[in-house]
Design brief:
The protein has a five-stranded mixed β-sheet, with helices on both faces. Helix 5 links the parallel strand 4 and strand 5. It has eight helices and five strands. With about 240 residues, it is an alpha/beta fold. Helix 2 packs across helix 3, helix 3 crosses helix 7 and helix 4 crosses helix 5. The chain folds into two domains: about 80 residues, no CATH class; about 110 residues, 2-Layer Sandwich (Nucleotidyltransferase, domain 5), CATH 3.30.420.10. InterPro entries: DDE_dom (IPR032874), IS_Transposase (IPR052183), RNaseH-like_sf (IPR012337), RNaseH_sf (IPR036397), Transpos_IS6 (IPR047930). Keywords: DNA recombination, DNA-binding, Transposition. Involved in the transposition of the insertion sequence. GO terms for molecular function: DNA binding.
Length: about 240
């Protein structure tokens, strides 16, 4: 059995500092220079360009590892999906970030397209169902592209629409919107796709639904999530 090669093997900086840097930048609405200043107060001297390089290199690696570990525990996500799209501008041009949310608030999939038609919706749905399976129920807004795409997939009958029914998806956009403002928008479509996917995995990992549990249980879950993050690719 071959052992996985450490992604930190060519870096002189300790893995603990790299993990902390990536977590601060992706999880919280901070700029690159904000993270640089926070690390400076902790005695770590790195530039904002180093922060950018670390998150670009290690963010997708950490996100993929988190996603792999959560696959078994996310089988309940096949119960009900909430689908919605966000308007995101890239260099002044409007793009669409399609997002699939399960009934517990887990962000299942993020997909960027230039259009908002049937073809884009169909591509998004096929990608989501290939990775996470087919849900029992689908909740959407009144966008006709969803109905046309689901009909092609033989899923038009279980689509649900209604006022306030898709609030789960609408509320899930807020953490990403705050992060988007801190980054002063995106400049390339592939950068948006990359960051949206990484942000979704990190947000799922640390999202403890604080209002639904007692203080003691919340502290235990938060400590467990942080311990698991610190253990990513640990020797």
């Amino acid at each position: 059995m071959t052992q996985k090669r450490s992604p930190f093997r060519y870096f002189k900086t300790s893995p603990e500092i790299i993990r902390l840097t990536v977590m601060l930048y992706i999880r919280f609405p901070l700029s690159l220079r904000n993270v640089e200043d926070l690390l400076h107060e902790r005695g770590v001297e790195v530039s904002h360009e180093t922060v950018r390089y670390w998150w670009n290199r290690f963010g997708p690696i950490f996100a993929a590892e988190i996603r792999k570990r959560r696959v078994q525990s996310m089988r309940s996500s096949q119960w009900r999906w909430h689908l919605d799209e966000m308007f995101v501008k890239i260099n002044g041009k409007q793009h669409y970030l399609w997002r699939a949310i399960d009934h517990e608030g887990e962000v299942l999939e993020s997909f960027v397209t230039v259009t908002r038609d049937k073809a884009a919706a169909l591509k998004f749905l096929r990608k989501s169902m290939k990775r996470h399976g087919r849900p029992r129920d689908v909740v959407t807004d009144r966008l006709r592209s969803y109905g046309a795409a689901l009909k092609d997939m033989g899923r038009g009958d279980d689509r649900e629409m209604g006022r306030w029914m898709n609030n789960r998806a609408e509320n899930s956009h807020l953490p990403f919107r705050r992060r988007e403002r801190a980054m002063q928008r995106f400049r390339q479509m592939r950068c948006l796709q990359k960051f949206a996917s990484v942000h979704a995995s990190v947000h799922n990992h640390f999202n403890q639904e604080r209002s639904l549990s007692s203080r003691s249980i919340f502290k235990q879950n938060r400590a467990a999530a942080l311990a698991e993050w610190r253990g990513l690719f640990a020797a």
